[in-house]
Amino acid sequence: MTKDEYINEFKNLMRIKRFQPNTIDTYTSCIKMFLNWCEEADIFPPNLTKSQLVDYLSHTESGSLLRQQIGTIGNFYAWVIGVPYICAGMPYAQKRTRLPDYFTPYELIKIFESVKNKKQRLILKVQYALALRVHEVVKIKWTDFVQSYSHELKTIVYDIRIVGKGGYTDVVPVPVETIQEITEVLGNLFGTNGYLFKGQFKEHYSTRSVQIIINRAMDECRILKYGSTHLLRHSRATHLLQNGSSLRHVQMILRHKKSTTTEIYTHLSKNDLRLSMLNSDNNLMAGMNHQKQLETPLKSA
Questions:
Q1: Of 7, 12, 9, nearest in space to 33 by CA
Q2: Residue 296: its pLDDT value, please?
Q3: How many helices (H) and strands (E) does the chain have?
Q4: Alpha-carbon distance 54 to 59, whole Å?
Q5: Residue 159: which of 136, 204, 170, 235 has the closest Cα?
Q6: Could you tell me the CA-to-CA distances from 117 to 3, 63, 213 in Å, in that order?
Q7: d(CA 162, CA 140)
Q8: Among residues 57, 59, 63, 71, which one has the least CA distance to residue 23?
Q9: Alpha-carbon distances of 160 from 127, 157, 200, 280, rounded to whole Å
């Protein structure tokens, strides 16, 4: 087989496995790097030895890319080459837990105000309100909204179907304010087909366009934080927890399968920490003053 034939067969097998298009693209990129290395090293893939594979992987700088490479090469050899245990026993890079950054409410208001185009501002607001990933928000369709009547709330409520990671579909509630903003900017929710946010050159807005919008807004507001569009998702989770939502509710909104994934959002913001420190210091000073008041009569006596 040629390199291109290997790649095409791997892609077809991933389609049979019903991998998502983004996942197929990522894995294809990984296997291309590996096959290019094999070509340069004059290694015929079926003849690859364990020591040669270790040599290749040892030069991967990023820990996340290394984990991706091991998984991709393992699948490639199992499905295409017919050698299922090529990566057996291969050590994975140690994960370093990095607390997610987020926008403070003040920063978020500044960002929204800096985006003058109503449609562009609405994309950011919807992504924040529903705690979506960027590829999820651009692919919202009008038909994804579901209207129903809540007997508990005695009013009409809205939900939305979201196709998330791995192709899993979840239904999450939509705040009334979000529905109002959508109808104000784009019109009636029902009786319309197609994507909510139509693109200029394709059916829907591109993820790159949304990234440009928020990066430009962050530059204008002089906000230096890592993460761009994903910061909106982090911010929504953090703000919900800060305002008293339970971890379980936040897990449902973020659509995490495991609660341990959501627990990373339980970190305190700097303002929470300042408030805790201030309350602690005030309590300490109050206690010291009270003690002095008790001691003063004794000394004078």
A1: 7
A2: 58
A3: 13, 3
A4: 9
A5: 170
A6: 46, 39, 10
A7: 8
A8: 71
A9: 12, 10, 24, 43
Q: How many CB atoms lie within 10 A of CB 149?
A: 9
Closest CA to 104 of 212, 261, 242: 242
The two tokens of residue 43 are 């290694």
> Mean pLDDT, consecutive 10-residue segments, the chain of 301 residues?
93 91 90 94 93 91 85 94 88 70 91 94 95 92 90 88 81 91 86 83 87 95 88 90 84 84 65 54 61 56 44
**Residue 226: strand, helix, or coil:** coil
Report the pLDDT value the prediction gives residue 292, as an integer from 0 to 100: 59
Asked if 197 and 119 count as a contact pair (C-beta separation under 8 A), the reply is yes
Q: Contact 78/84 with Cβ under 8 angstroms?
A: yes
